[in-house]
Amino acid sequence: MQEAKVKSLQKALEILNCFIEEPLLGVTEISDKFGLYKSNVHNILSTFKVMGYLEQDEASGRYKLGIQAFKLGYALKDTFSIIKICQPFMQELANKSNQRVYLAIPYETEIYYLEATYPIESVTLMRSVFGMKASYHCTGLGKAMLAYMSQDFVEEICSRPLKRFTENTITQGERLKEELELIRGRGYAIDDMEHEFGIRCVAIPIRNAAGTVLAALSISGAYRDFPEEKVESYALMLKEDIMEIEKRI
């Protein structure tokens, strides 16, 4: 990683990044976290507030992300051409399967969600997932991508503590490697209530001509709507559309 040239700007952005994990923070909390004088923290937060990247809660005096941060994130979304390529396919998949469809990309040791589409009948349930993150080991999207990534990266993920989310979560590295081998054999991953109880999904990676994993698509829904025959059907739908998507990348 390259060294930052402007240390003061680096520190200010590190402070802004804190709001990704904690939506509401005060001067004292940030001062303690970074070992900075409260006056310095106040000046940084006040500057972000003036620029619209932060807002101040009237009741508590603590800070939260402002509209300018949202606008910046929305502009970033438009730079991902893969969203534009996938979105029409995703909407068609959502309508055909009557389930939710998700698009995510690999980013360092986690996956990041870029887009979600919903069946027409479920328009009231729509919500933005852009920028949300999750782990590789417990999601269909994550396992689908991990199965086709480098052995070194697989070893890195499998050697880390694997957090348990449900009783079905894979928490042992060797067991995860076995699951990845199974995924490569059948061509798709399944999240069998491993991240969230009652939710099942099937996922397939999107790769370029060199075989590099770029993203993954999943069809997700309530466990009761995912009997084995439906899993096979959803996997086939995904495979057909991903073949067309990969031609356009």
Automatic annotation (TrEMBL):
Gene3D superfamilies: 3.30.450.40, Winged helix-like DNA-binding domain superfamily/Winged helix DNA-binding domain
Entry keyword set: DNA-binding, Transcription, Transcription regulation
Pfam families assigned to the protein according to its UniProt record, in alphabetical order: HTH_IclR (PF09339), IclR_C (PF01614)
The IclR-ED domain, residue ranges: 68-249
Keyword DNA-binding: yes
Highest taxon above the source species: Bacteria
SUPFAM superfamilies: GAF domain-like, Winged helix' DNA-binding domain
Positions of the HTH iclR-type domain: 6-67
Molecular function terms, GO-annotated: DNA binding; DNA-binding transcription factor activity
Keyword DNA-binding: yes
Single biological process term from Gene Ontology: negative regulation of DNA-templated transcription
Role played: May be an activator protein for the gylABX operon.
PANTHER family the record matches: HELIX-TURN-HELIX TRANSCRIPTIONAL REGULATOR, ICLR FAMILY, HTH-TYPE TRANSCRIPTIONAL REPRESSOR ALLR
Protein known as: Glycerol operon regulatory protein
Lineage of the organism: Bacteria, Bacillati, Bacillota, Clostridia, Lachnospirales
